[in-house]
Design goal:
Elements: H1 2-10, E1 16-20, H2 24-38, E2 47-51, H3 57-64, E3 74-79, H4 91-96, E4 102-108, H5 116-124, E5 126-129, H6 135-148, E6 152-153, H7 155-165, H8 169-182, E7 188-189, H9 191-197, H10 201-214, H11 218-230, H12 235-257, H13 262-269, H14 276-283, H15 288-306, H16 312-324
Parallel strand pairs: 1-4, 1-5, 2-3, 3-4, 6-7
Helix pairs in contact: 6-8, 10-11, 11-16, 12-13, 12-14, 12-15, 15-16
Length: 326
């Protein structure tokens, strides 16, 4: 990202860019930033955008070999064409025929590292791997967006927001826009603001219930479970959450035992990095056999509910009693 920002600042562009990685927000952001810096994207004479598999290569080649019209550059943007995950004989040869005034930006969700065109981009272009930022960068990004609106956000509120909504940047950006409108006229965003605007009351209680179960606080866990039922949260949905939670604990237990670091654990288990310590602490209360048995009990309860052996609300309550007991 720093390299692309520097290219934009200096108006000194690479001829070929490949934007790849799993963070869609960053790919979209840098595709747009680069495009606007190179040409006017409303200028149909000098801008070509193609999206989807099986692009019309002849049209792309013809546009790429044409000199720009009253502009310094001609820009071709190719998005999710699939050209970097299948055989692409001849594409790079045509790209090499493009004049220096033609710039190509490829944006791809899926890339095969063995693909010939990908290897060509590594040698002749600039490859930017835009993955989900680490915890530190994600928090800095949230604070930056708040500062641009003349607001601050409490540290605890940032952690609370990410823990409850995940690390997907499109979602976080949309939720922040809601918060900016809700908090207009104030200069600080609090946890209570996030609860009011972004977090469903039932979802909040779900997280509290899991923490209570992990902390062996049976009384609180059961109270929260009954609160969820009153909020019309289906027992089967709660069972699904329990199953996912203990599946994560099982993975964390194995990875921690193998001395994996927090970043690796977060990546493998699909959880925010700053929650890893909490999962590790909860997993230490059990061994592998116990966690596996708990998952098996979740599956058994699911089967008994679906076959009518036990009522759903009773089956889930019995699990909570068992898992939160000392």
């Amino acid at each position: 990202m720093e390299r692309i920002n520097q290219d934009i600042k200096n108006a000194a562009f690479q001829q070929f860019y490949l934007l790849m990685g799993d963070e869609g927000y960053l790919k979209k952001q840098y595709k747009e930033k680069l495009s606007k810096a190179i040409v006017n994207t409303d200028d149909a004479m000098n801008y070509l955008y193609t999206e989807g598999n099986n692009p019309d290569l002849s049209t792309i080649y013809e546009a790429g070999e044409t000199l720009p019209f009253f502009s310094d550059y001609r820009l071709i943007v190719l998005e999710n064409t699939g050209l970097l995950k299948k055989a692409t004989d001849g594409v790079s040869n045509h790209f090499e025929q493009f004049p220096e005034s033609t710039i190509v930006i490829m944006v791809e969700d899926e890339v095969d590292g063995r693909n010939a065109l990908y290897k060509w981009f590594q040698k002749h272009g600039y490859v930017a791997k835009l993955d989900m930022p680490d915890e530190k960068k994600l928090i800095a990004w949230i604070r930056k967006l708040c500062n641009e609106e003349g607001m601050t956000i409490e540290d605890t509120a940032v952690f609370y927001m990410i823990e409850h909504m995940g690390t997907e940047m499109f979602l976080l950006k949309n939720e922040l826009e809601k918060l900016f409108s809700y908090c207009k006229g104030r200069n600080a965003i609090t946890i209570n603001d996030i609860r009011q605007v972004c977090i469903d009351e039932a979802d909040d209680k779900m997280f509290e219930m899991l923490d209570a179960i992990g902390g062996k606080n049976q009384k609180k866990a059961l109270k929260l479970y009954h609160d969820l039922l009153e909020l019309r949260r289906p027992a089967m949905q709660i069972l699904s959450l329990l199953t996912r939670h203990y599946n994560i604990l099982l993975q964390v237990e194995e990875l921690h035992k193998a001395s994996a670091d927090a970043k690796t654990i977060a990546s493998v288990c699909g959880v925010p990095p700053f929650t890893v310590k909490k999962y590790i602490n909860q997993s230490l209360a059990f061994d592998y056999a116990q966690l596996k048995q708990m998952l098996e009990r979740c599956a058994q309860t699911d089967q008994e509910i679906k076959t009518g052996v036990i009522k759903d609300t009773v089956g889930v309550e019995l699990l909570i009693v068992s898992f939160s007991g000392r």
